[in-house]
Specification:
The chain is an alpha/beta fold and 256 residues long. 30% of the residues lie in helices and 25% in strands. The chain has eight helices and ten strands. It has helices at 44-52, 71-74, 94-99, 114-126, 142-155, 172-187, 226-231, 240-247, and strands spanning 6-15, 18-28, 33-37, 56-64, 67-68, 77-80, 160-164, 191-195, 208-213, 216-221. The strands form two sheets. A six-stranded mixed β-sheet has the order 6-7-8-3-9-10, with helices on both faces. A four-stranded antiparallel β-sheet has the order 2-1-4-5, covered by helices on one side. The longest helix has 16 residues, at 172-187. The radius of gyration is 18 Å and the shape is globular.
């Protein structure tokens, strides 16, 4: 029997000595698309950070790809954070940002090779940014910048792609492009864990919904269940401004 890509047992995650997420059991099998739902402050992002080793796992067992979680196993995960900024005044091209996703997988002091360039090209094509590869990132729209971030994660050729609110602050045209791309990756067998406030155009792709409430898993099952439906709050293909007003989500800071 194939080991799950992600297997959490009794996991508590927090910061310093304060647990935010407590006693979570969660399994994600290869090829699944699992959406993590819940209100703001429910612990969704903290749980993801615990899986990635960004936040402290205070108790329980985290297994990745059938093995205890370690730096080596976490390199097999692609991560798109909710909001990311690039510091400094040096102009950065889209290709340079995407190529940075290959750095963790290379040995120290080795230069990018043909394999790296091919992976970057494929990632740019996957999010339809090939024609903008040489452009400064700051010249892209917010939705295009979001797609560049996703391409950076894809460039590492992950086995599990974790995305935290990938549609937040994204206009409807880019939402549709992202949903189409995510559908393609799922059909190719990529495993996805997506943090969201609602599913919108992703709904037909979702295998399971996991609902977080006050740091605990309230529900784990199909979207058709009333508990999941209650938290599937808004259609992600709404115009970004309308979604921000309804959810009081601040606009993502621009890169530059």
């Amino acid at each position: 029997m194939t080991a799950p890509v992600l297997d959490l047992s009794g996991v508590s995650v927090g910061y310093l000595d304060t647990p935010v997420v407590q006693q979570v059991d969660l399994r994600v099998d290869r090829g699944e698309l699992v959406v993590l739902l819940g209100e703001n402050g429910s612990g969704k992002s903290t749980l993801v950070k615990g899986i990635l080793g960004i936040a402290s796992t205070m108790s329980g067992d985290v297994r990745l790809f059938g093995r205890p979680a370690s730096a080596a196993e976490r390199h097999r995960i692609g991560y798109v954070p909710q909001r990311t900024t690039v510091a400094g005044g040096v102009p950065t091209t889209v290709r340079e940002v995407v190529a940075s996703g290959r750095v963790a997988g290379r040995r120290w002091f080795t230069r990018a090779g043909a394999t790296d360039r091919s992976a970057v090209d494929a990632a740019l094509d996957a999010v339809r940014l090939t024609d903008r590869a040489a452009d400064p990132l700051a010249t892209l729209s917010g939705g295009q910048q979001r797609r560049a971030l996703i391409a950076r994660a894809l460039a590492a050729e992950p086995e599990l792609l974790v995305m935290d609110e990938p549609m937040a602050g994204v206009d409807s045209a880019n939402v549709d492009l992202l949903a189409e791309a995510i559908g393609g990756w799922k059909r190719q067998g990529l495993t996805l864990l997506i943090v969201a406030h609602g599913t919108g155009p992703l709904r037909p792709l979702v295998d399971r919904a996991v609902v977080m409430h006050r740091g605990h898993v309230q529900y784990d099952g199909p979207l058709a269940d009333p508990i999941a439906a209650e938290h599937d709050e808004y259609p992600l293909d709404d115009h970004a401004e309308a979604a921000r007003r309804r959810l009081a989500v601040p606009e993502e800071p621009r890169w530059g």
